[in-house]
Amino acid sequence: MTEVLRLRYRRSERKQTEISGYDNLEKSEERMFGRFGELIEFLYRKGNSEEDSAHATVVVVDESRKRDGNTLDGLPYEDKKALLRFFFGHLNMIVVSYEDLNHPDIVKDINRISRCVEMMSVTRSGRVATWTGAGKCCAQSSVHCDSVMPISPQPLNETPKEQANLDCQGSAVIDVVQSMTSMLRTTLGQMELTFERRQHFYRLITQEIDFLRILSNSSRSHLSRLCHAVGQWSFPAHELSNDDLVYCVFLMLKFSLDYYVSECSSDIPQGLHIPSSNELLALIFTVRDTYNNGNPFHNFRHAADVLQACFYYLVRLKCLPSFEQLAADPNGEEMNVFTYTFDNKEPTILVPKADQGDSSRGVSSSGAEQKLEDDLKTLSHLKPLQSFSLLLAALGHDVGHPGVTNAFLTKYNTPTSMLYNDRSVLESFHACVFVNRILLVAWPDLLTVVVEEESKYTVRNLIVSSILATDMAEHFDYVRQLTCYKSFHNKKLCQGSNHLDYVKLTTSLLIKCADISNVTRPLRVSSQWALVLAREFDEIAHMESVLSASLQHVSIPTIYPKIPYQVEDVLRVRPDLRNGQIFFIDTFAESLFGSVSDAWPQLTYTKDIIYSNKSFWINFS
Which residues pair with 450 in a beta bridge? Predict the structure, then answer.
């Protein structure tokens, strides 16, 4: 049922009894807020949940506040409405004023739309059909195809006759339920909300909200533990909450950004804004809300995990400095940090090591490998801003992911697949949304900063090319390109125009490796990722059955118990993981990480762990 959130200022003289239609709103839960910022904090906190929003959120806004436009509470009603719809559209927002509730027709429409939202969202297949446009479209025009009616879901508390009479194809419903095409429309269209207004709203949010307070656990001891978790190759993503992952992402981005500022202070473009810690946290919270947390695999946890893999690579490759909390052993037991007692003197940020030495190398190299590494010392390193841009790309590489594949989107002729001509559909969508919906609002001046002077290659270019590189359809082409690294001992190949190609290939390969790094994590962690990926593939198969009409009005459980901790328990839940893991390692991972280890000896541990994991799966019965 509908959740109703009320913004009511104390100075308002209007009493609830004067709102004739309020009691007629169909609602299961309601909350009252005295400040607009308090309401926004509540909405951001919802991101710690690991479920999709399966109901409408009705926000009733008090219009009595003096309007100055320079504070959140001073925003006029239309601006408050626009802010809520843009930043929290994933919560199926219906925003109305108290005055609206005095009109019976409006109240009736709110209830109708809320029931439609519930009908379209009550099952996982319904939500995905709505997001992708793979269900029944109300019109053939691609302009309207995001008004999707899923085939199988049946609304709660509705009889079939009532369902048949429920009109859910109007524009009001389309505007409430977010889809991939509606995200693109609101991202790129400025008629409803200009970029300048979006940026103004975002500035007010970062000025008035303390994002550290939003975290469910911000004690010093807990944040210190997260610093050590980030330093583990066996990064325990499934033992961390979404709020924990937000702080982990913050730690890595801040560490990389601080390194850029300290190392390149004389080269920082004039006018480039360097965000505060609160602004950086705000960016991460905003990104988190753009992921669909109900996806078993392609969710914010996966984004944080890919970023951590990239971060770990960059430290071992000496693109970023080592830090005190870094674990040298890739096979180390990561959960030891959760049993250790931390005092209040422990740092809550990553601390660079005073003596870098060779501590970040982590693996021994032969004499030939060491000579090659020394020869490439200045060439195989990304510049600090290039490294930071790669981490940003990792954070946003799957934003808005609907939980299905490119093949699924193409097979059902979804609007997004038609828009991108069936090529790198998801990757193009992710890049567009991350750059134009998030970064262009939160940090617009960063996008135009040049990261490769001779070619004028910008941060935006690097982020987009890195995200596009995660398309598995391009996988074998990148494996072939790895042979180029054998020639990079000739420094001339890395100079001039060739150096840009080298940077693009380096960032593309690193994010590709990070994107499929789950098979290179120690077995306990790797098996957890195998389980959630299998769940997502199960859901895709179920949706295909629904959409082909071979299965209707049947749902599968999509709220799962917590991922088991030990490998043995994972396999009790899903004993058939073996074949999928062996196939993926044989087909994709073994050749990629083998070649990567040849190119970068510091990453040989990934190949070693793959061999160990593969041996386990082969011998498991």
Answer: 458
User: CA-CA distance, 168 to 179, in Å (whole number)?
Assistant: 15
Instruction: Specify the range with the lowest mean pLDDT, choosing from 121-135, 298-312, 316-330, 541-555.
Output: 541-555
**Are the C-beta atoms of 391 and 307 separated by less than 8 Å?**
yes
User: Which tokens in the block code for residue 274?
Assistant: 């360097």
Q: CA 168 to CA 172: how far, in whole Å?
A: 9
Question: Which of 328, 287, 324 is CA-nearest to residue 306?
Answer: 287
Task: Please report where in the chains the tokens 């103004």 appear, as a residue.
Answer: 200
Residue 614 has pLDDT above 50, yes or no: yes
Q: How far apart are CA 101 and CA 86, in angstroms?
A: 23
- Is residue 124 within 8 A of residue 88, CB to CB? The reply is no
Q: Between the CA of residue 462 and those of 120, 200, 466, what are the distances in Å?
A: 37, 26, 6
Helix segments in 433-549, DSSP class H: 440-442, 444-447, 459-468, 475-481, 497-515, 523-547
Domains in the chain: boundaries: 3-178, 198-520, 523-619
424 sits in the region (left: phi over 0; alpha: psi -120 to 50; else beta) called left
Query: What are the Cα distances from residue 391, in Å, to 226, 309, 313?
Result: 18, 10, 11
How far apart CA 240 and CA 232 sit, in angstroms, is 13
Residue 498 phi, psi (nearest 5): -65, -25
DSSP conformation letters of 227-246: HHHHT-SS--GGGS-HHHHH
For residue 32, give the DSSP letter: E
Residue 556 in this model has a pLDDT that exceeds 90: no
Q: What is the pLDDT at residue 75? A: 96
Distance from C-alpha of 263 to C-alpha of 320, rounded to nearest angstrom: 11
How far, in Å, CA of 176 to CA of 392, rounded?
A: 29
Q: Give the lowest-confidence range in 12-16, 360-364, 390-394.
A: 360-364
CATH 3.50.4.10 for the 198-520 domain, yes or no: no
Residue (of 4, 94, 88, 98) closest to 40 by Cα position: 88
pTM above 0.85, yes or no: yes
- The rounded radius of gyration (Å) of the Cα atoms in the chain is 25
Instruction: Render 318-373 in DSSP notation, one character per residue.
Output: TSS--BTT--S-TT--GGGGGTSPP-TTS-SS--B-S--TTTTT-S---HHHHHHH
